[in-house]
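Interim report, section 4.2 (structural modelling).
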Amino acid sequence: MRRQPDIPPRLATWLLHRFLRDDLAEDVGGDLEERFYTLRENTSRLRAQTDYWYQVLFYIRPFAIRKRSRQPQLYRAMYKNYFTTSLRAMKKNKLHAAINIAGLSVGMTVAIIIGLWIKDELSYEKHFDNYSSIGRVLQNVTNNGHVDTWWSVPWPLADELRKKYGDNFTHVVLATDAENAVVTYEDKHLSQSGIFAEPDFGALFTLPMVQGGHDALQDASSVLISQSLARTYFADGDPIGKIITINTTMTVHVAGVYKDIPEQSEFNNVHFIAPWQLLYNESGWIKNMHDPWRPNAFSLYVGLAANRSFDAVSLMIKDAKLKNLSTELAKKKPALFIHPMSRWHLYSRFKDGFQVGGLITYVWLFAIIGVFVVLMACMNFMNLSTARSEKRAKEVGIRKAIGSYRSQLIQQFFSESLVTVLLSFTLALLLVQLSLPAFNLVAGKQAALPWSDITLWLYAIGLCVVIGLLAGSYPALYLSSITARHALKGGFRASKGSSWSRKVMVVVQFTVSVTMIIGTAVVFRQIQHAKNRPIGYETDGLVAVQTNSSELHKHIDAVRNELQQARFIVDVAEAGSPTTESWSSTSAIKWDGKDPDLSVDFSNVGVSANYGKTIGWEIAQGRDFNRDILSDSNAFIVNETAANYMGFTTPVGEVVYWYDQPIKIVGVIKDIVSNSPFEPVKPTFYFIDPNAGGFALFRISPDQPAQQALGAIERVYKKYNPEKPFTFRFVDEAYAQKFGNEERMGKLAGIFTSLAIFISCLGIFGLSSFIAEQRTKEIGIRKVHGATVFQVWRMVSTDFVVLVVVACCIAMPVAYWLASQWVTRYTYHTNVSWFIPVFAALTILLITLVTVSWHTVQAAKTNPVKSLRTE
Amino acid sequence: MIETRLGDFEEVILLIAGILDDEAYALKITEEFKRQTGREVSIGAVHSTLDRLEQKGFVKSALGEATAIRGGKRKRIFTITALGKRVLKDAMDFKMSLWKQYPLLAGKLNFSF
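Predicted structure of the assembly:
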């Protein structure tokens, strides 16, 4: 390798002479050089070079900097003049300026808001120090040839990974998902969400501790709590060492307090972290598992050791679970892999065992919308500029005639567009500030303008300049080139090309608008479609109350009698999970004639005998449970999907085996939608569980105001559970929330679509005003010759309608195809009918006609005497 | 009006320039300052002070000899003017008079400069 010459850094020397006063150049240059070579004799090259840089940078002082020459002051006056002329031009053409500024500021507002949203989405999990080397172990399981990705794993897997694959990981941490638990301190009982995790949890995620250390969880009787939980329970007192109780049975002492985990994290609602060992010791079901490798109920987080890649380690641990399974479970061929933390939030969808995106789709979608909306606003600006160019041409001619250089004209036009852009930007900031609260409400975010983030501002200003240059490029570069002679003669006409480009831009704008209308319409259709889906029971007036203890269950008959007599409720039933979710599923189901290779996964719900009557399910065949028939304690009611799945012609009376115990099917119900309303219903069976608890479902009397009934329910609940928090949900609200994500996206898309349409309309509004003005004389002459107002209106409007029709022709097939692709994401989806694109096209045509008519009708109505007399 | 008051740093730089005599250029003064006080300053900081002193008329500067290690570039030598010397003397006298008015300390300290 060729050695670099041992001289002071060239860049630094160059910089020095850029700013240094000329009369100092020689002696300062000499001093620094002498210093460099003297240093170089005793120290390393790097030291000497660093010192040189240091000395150069510290010469940037007022005394040493070259004084500006006289010229810039002249420039300053010129710029001032540009600025004034810009303002004057705006004042002269108020409509034109208003359209430009309104369009650009709305476009920028949309872009800024989308930018903030994207920034927020991208920031998920990034605040954990080691996020790039943390992952979660997932598994791909094969059910009858179909691959599903499960986020939970069986608990013994943690030890297995530690023992056999330990050198790949810094930590392997088993944890539960965040769940609500009753946390008690003295007489304060509140429902708090938290997890049970192995001791390394804090170390793996480098939890920022306010008090205590990560490793406190080594002690199975300790707990870490979040700062906000500490504040709720202990106010300003010292939380360390305080004894609290989780779910009444687990007593722990507070060993550490961590800073609340930020909103942008999977763990943001984790307010306590209790030791996994405690859960293991206290809850019999983990310890006494039939086969601990069977239930997939836990989350497993790993930290990769240095120099390990997710892919390589995923490949290594692929069969770690399979090797430990019984032959029956091994049928599912679980293949483990690690999902990196940086992708948890945005890349969470898996299909057939492969990553297929997730929220990132929306990030891209909105990013594209943002770019298009800004582009559309820029197009308006350019369109109106070119349209007005004939008028401006005269100005150019005069300026040139009195001695203006072309470069000065270029600068003038650019400063005009920059002034417009900066004005719009300021207005946009104001609009963003005003609309953020509403946006946050719709988007479920807490975005705010980062006023203090300087780099972001630099980007924003930089973008403004780019937009300004882009939007101002036509008048600046083209108009400034016209010769004075040409322009002043009056015969100047914008070139054919410019009117073409104008048309193309209008077509692009409307293509985007129509596409967005179709897209939004399809989103709402899809939501409506899923909402109209029969859900199999009556949600109105149904309240699910979390029982939190067995007290309510023991006295359920007393509760029912009391509330029924006061006519507050019709009935109350009990179940293991709320109707809007199903929490339990099993693969240990067999029946006669079952294909031995078939691996199954049935949802199961333990209920009280009157469950069906209370929630109002529909019996399709057979009968409902009856508490007077003793054998019903060993009976199933299955849903239609399950009956079909098992292939029974007459399901009622058939026997199925659950953990090899024969159980008779007594009834079949119509499917109940209990998970996602966009997905097919799972095969489900219901059985009478004498200990059915967890949830009490109250059917409120229809003639009672819900609030009063709820108050009565709470009073009764408190009678049996004086120290438990009363948590309830209206089932219809819980069900409606399943559409939250889709509705949010639909609303956002709707808002952005209307703004895009608004911008496009501003554009043609401006253009039509210009055309109407330009054709004043023509219209006058036509009217003199007997044209009616309608004929004139039709003639002028046709030009625009043609463009919009072309846009529709492009947009309809494209949008139709995109929308059809999108709906297939959902198993239960609507079909994109031809009606939607046609509807969108008609809407946009109507809007166009109304917008254009504002000016054309005025022009058509003008008395020809007036219009022909102008000038 | 020309600023005539002498700052603390200015006073030290002026003195060092005097000590170095015909070797008094920005780099050397900086190095001498480091040697005498143990404090590191940039050449630019010293030069800007010298510039100020020159404007106040306490020093004057002229380009001097060039050496090879400087890439053949000449040095700017600063020499103290008569006004500069008087201002230095005034500064010292002023401090002396202050010390004398402070007998308790003056007795114990045994002026060592």
